[in-house]
Amino acid sequence: MTTLEELNRLIETSLKDPGTEPALFRALLDATLYAHAPLNDPSERLHLVMFPHPFDRTLTIPIFTDEAKAEFAARGNVRIIAMTGRQLLEITMGASITLNPNDNWCTLYPEEICELLASGMIATVRKDELQEGETQCFKLNEIPVPLVKALKKSLPAIRSVEVAYVAGLKWREANRPDGLLIVLGGGAHSAEREVRAAATALQDVFARLEQSVDMLHFDSAQAKPGWIHELGLNPVYRRRRGSPAASPYN
């Protein structure tokens, strides 16, 4: 059983070094976590309180690592439910959760939760803002076949992703090797979830590639970025019209 002290230490470490997040998420499975339930619920089934995510307004379940934090957020308006992280994630499969929403919180999406329960792993995704002139994209002579196969296999389940491209990424920084860039076209308000779901599905392939992989997102309802046309990139994946694959997590 993961203690509260161990959890707090892992949280503080992950805030300084995102690369340590997988250890934190694995520890959550064996920790006691707390959620909110309605005070008066006539149903025999357990219902948990949800709230709109501040970024995309999708509903998410607030989860707390500390009973005191859960009590403070409840303010007497809801009751506190305690169970192991594994139990909590299993009974809420299909929902997003937000960890410690009043602190330095993070959200886990259904695809990530499913993978965490199955393998104990979640892909580490770091969000960066590139400065103008820091990188340059180029057309690859050959796209790694395992990557193409993995994209075609995984993206149909992420129902809001419409199209994907792969390009090379050259860094201006000296001695930094060229990498790969996956470009996803999808929903304007679901960019973070789409990128993280794809990263989770592709993490095994990423680990086998001998190149770094970055991901970029654009709104597929708008015109695709001009540089994609200028480079002559062809989609490695495009959703079939008339037969959209629904995500098993929704």
Explain how this protein is built.
Helix content is 32%, strand content 24%. It is an alpha+beta fold and 250 residues long. It has 2 domains: 4-119, Trna Endonuclease, Chain: A, domain 1 (3-Layer(aba) Sandwich), CATH 3.40.1350; 135-238, GMP Synthetase, Chain A, domain 3 (2-Layer Sandwich). The strands form 2 sheets. Strands 1, 2, 3, 4, 5 and 6 form a 6-stranded mixed sheet that branches. Strands 7, 8, 9, 10 and 11 form a 5-stranded mixed sheet that branches. α1 (4-16) packs antiparallel against α2 (21-29) and α5 (110-119) runs parallel beside α7. The radius of gyration is 20 Å and the shape is elongated.
* Amino-to-carboxy terminus distance: 31 Å
Instruction: Count structural domains.
Output: 2
- The class by helix and strand makeup works out as alpha+beta
Helix content estimate: 25-40%
Largest sheet: 6 strands, mixed
User: What does the overall shape look like?
Assistant: elongated
Determine the mean pLDDT: 89
Order of helices and strands: HHEEEHEHEEHEHEEHEHE
Give the C-level CATH assignment of the largest domain.
Alpha Beta
Examine the secondary-structure arrangement and name the CATH architecture of the largest domain. Answer: 3-Layer(aba) Sandwich
Q: Could you list the spans in which at least 5 consecutive residues all have pLDDT below 50?
A: 246-250
Evaluate the radius of gyration: 20 Å
